[in-house]
């Protein structure tokens, strides 16, 4: 049986027969090998790399017999014979390697290995969590690849290989990172969305199939398009998971990145720029803005920009980039006013309000709450009703979905009684905001009242503000303007609202939301 000569990079899945004898060349560059597993290798692995890793041949090359095996649920990472193999959680097929035709102890080895994982139609229950991927890496990532004439077909293919390696190392899975790809050229093209694939092998295949588009590198246009269109819920973006765009740039962009960077930040997207082969001195004359990287990235603190000198030998750059993409606590642009605030509502339940107006108050509370991304790692809402006494309706930790919060607001029962607003503010500062005062979210209190308070409001409101709570006062009907201003945070004009009729509350909703967002952004400067 003649052996087939293969290259250093021929993978198990490139071989077509169940058992195949191959010849590996000499002097393959060890650091370029991609090998997954130990003993049994994912078919994504380089055959010659696996053969050296398992000790069947040395770097001098030689004859290897490759036996195709069923897929496995876990390929371990093991360092052996100068090659570090990598972890892969699942792959559809595997192979084992043994010495070429000269050996006789071969068949037994082939047989015992192949029984390691019987290929039954049904997957055993316990393997289901392997599909989950790397749960510690929470990210929804768009790879914005360069498809312009700047990069050219050959480097475009090297770029695809690099993106594929990053995708594999991320540990894509149902509960791990999800990725999609957008190609930037004259016009941006979304190649596939987050929802299309949740397994590394599918993503790799999709990346391999990408065609080169050519044209100008209108990266700004593509970045803006991706920030606005790519991360919708219907396209697979997940609530509360950081949104990331990794922009690959070969040379320089043909258009302006600054505006696109602003749009991305407004949409709560973290932009990374991976620049490869900096512009030459002649090219710099064509760059609209030399500081384009700092203007486009999420923050110009060095964390979000990444440089590679060339597309060759990029394997060593994979892991550091993956570590960055998986550090969700560093994703500063994920925090927007919609997903990083605690809003406490202090609701007047005194007898002057009346049952039907009380319903209008609750509608107002719902409409404000509805605008925010409420989740266990996002924004939170709490409510307290007051007369002379205070009744906590629900705390910041009671409901962690928007649906549950809105349902809890609907179920608030009207108390009826006197009006002690000052006491109520002190109660809320202590009992509702106290437990979250050291948390990551910015705190807001919205006080709704329709009349004069029987006690002092100025002292309790000042104490609340000193505790880091921004206070908005919303008055209806007989609420005195002096009281409202005394309660409100500075500048008082923009934190004080008043309407004669309860029906006027509805018009205030957009202004209150805008006010919260303005304060949130000002606090981040």
Characterize the structure shown.
- Helices cover 31% and strands 22% of the residues.
- The protein is of the alpha/beta class.
- The protein folds into 3 domains: 4-99, LCCL-like domain (Ferric Hydroxamate Uptake Protein, Chain A, domain 1, Beta Complex); 140-330, Rossmann fold; 341-523, von Willebrand factor, type A domain (Rossmann fold, 3-Layer(aba) Sandwich).
- A 6-stranded mixed beta sheet has the order 1-2-5-8-4-3, with helices on both faces. Strands 11-10-9-12-13-14 form a 6-stranded mixed beta sheet, sandwiched between helices. A 6-stranded mixed beta sheet has the order 17-16-15-18-19-20, sandwiched between helices.
- β12, α6 (258-266) and β13 (269-276) form a beta-alpha-beta unit.
- α3 packs antiparallel against α4.
- The longest helix has 20 residues, at 505-524.
- It starts with a strand and ends with a helix.
- Residues 103-128 have low confidence and may be disordered.
Short précis:
The protein has 525 residues and is of the alpha/beta class. 31% of the residues lie in helices and 22% in strands. It holds the Pfam family LCCL.
CATH A-level architecture of the largest domain = 3-Layer(aba) Sandwich
Q: Which segments are poorly predicted (pLDDT under 50) over 5 or more consecutive residues?
A: 103-128
Query: What is the highest CATH level, the class of the largest domain?
Result: Alpha Beta
Total number of strands: 20
Question: Strand percentage, roughly?
Answer: 15-25%
| Percentage of residues in helical conformation | 25-40%
The assembly state of the depicted protein chains is single chain
CATH superfamily of the largest domain: von Willebrand factor, type A domain
Q: Which descriptor suits the 3D outline?
A: elongated
The total number of structural domains is 3
**Could you tell me the mean pLDDT?**
87
Distance from N terminus to C terminus (CA atoms, Å) equals 72 Å
């Amino acid at each position: 049986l003649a052996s087939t000569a293969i290259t250093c990079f021929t993978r198990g899945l490139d071989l077509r027969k169940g058992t195949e004898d191959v010849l590996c060349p000499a002097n393959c560059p060890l650091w370029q090998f991609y090998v997954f597993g130990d003993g049994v290798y994912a078919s994504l692995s380089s055959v010659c790399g696996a053969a050296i890793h398992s000790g069947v041949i040395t770097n001098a090359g030689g004859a290897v017999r490759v036996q195709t095996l069923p897929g496995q649920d876990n390929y371990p990472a093991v360092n052996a014979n100068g090659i570090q193999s990598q972890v892969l959680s699942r792959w559809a097929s595997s192979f084992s390697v043994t010495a070429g035709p000269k050996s006789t102890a071969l068949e037994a080895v082939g047989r015992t290995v192949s029984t390691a994982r019987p290929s039954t139609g049904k997957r055993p229950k316990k393997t289901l969590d392997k599909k989950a991927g790397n749960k510690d890496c929470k990210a929804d990532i768009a790879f914005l690849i360069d498809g312009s004439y700047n990069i050219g077909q050959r480097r475009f293919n090297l770029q695809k290989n690099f993106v594929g390696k990053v995708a594999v190392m991320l540990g894509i899975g149902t509960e791990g990172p999800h990725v999609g790809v957008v190609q930037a050229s004259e016009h941006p093209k979304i190649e596939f969305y987050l929802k299309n694939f949740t397994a590394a092998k599918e993503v790799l295949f999709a990346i391999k199939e990408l065609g080169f588009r050519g044209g100008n590198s209108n990266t700004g246009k593509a970045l803006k398009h991706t920030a606005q269109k790519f991360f919708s819920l219907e396209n697979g973006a997940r609530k509360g998971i950081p949104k990331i765009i990794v922009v690959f740039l070969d040379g320089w962009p043909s258009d302006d990145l600054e505006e696109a960077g602003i749009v991305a930040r407004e949409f709560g997207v973290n932009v990374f720029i991976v620049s490869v082969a900096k512009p030459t001195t002649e090219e710099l004359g064509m760059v609209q803005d030399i500081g384009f990287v700092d203007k486009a990235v999420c923050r110009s603190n060095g964390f979000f920009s990444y440089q590679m000198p060339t597309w060759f030998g990029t394997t060593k750059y994979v892991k550091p980039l993956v570590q960055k993409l998986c550090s969700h606590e560093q994703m500063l642009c994920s925090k927007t006013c919609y997903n990083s605030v605690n809003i406490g509502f202090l609701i007047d339940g005194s007898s002057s309000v009346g049952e039907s107006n009380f319903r209008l108050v609750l509608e107002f509370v719902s409409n404000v709450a509805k605008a925010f991304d409420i989740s266990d790692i996002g924004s939170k809402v709490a409510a307290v009703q007051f007369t002379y006494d205070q009744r906590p309706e629900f705390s910041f930790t009671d409901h962690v979905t928007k649906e549950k919060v809105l349902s809890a607001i609907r179920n608030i029962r009207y108390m009826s009684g006197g009006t002690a607003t000052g006491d109520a503010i002190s109660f809320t500062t202590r009992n509702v905001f106290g437990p979250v005062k050291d948390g990551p979210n910015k705190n807001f209190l919205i006080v709704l009242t329709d009349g004069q308070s029987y006690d002092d409001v100025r002292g309790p409101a000042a104490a609340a503000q000193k505790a880091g709570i921004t206070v908005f006062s919303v008055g209806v009907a007989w609420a005195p303007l002096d009281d409202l201003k005394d309660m409100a945070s500075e500048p008082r004009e923009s934190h004080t609202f008043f309407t004669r009729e309860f029906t006027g509350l509805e018009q205030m909703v957009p202004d209150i939301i805008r006010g919260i967002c303005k304060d949130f952004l000002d606090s981040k400067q």
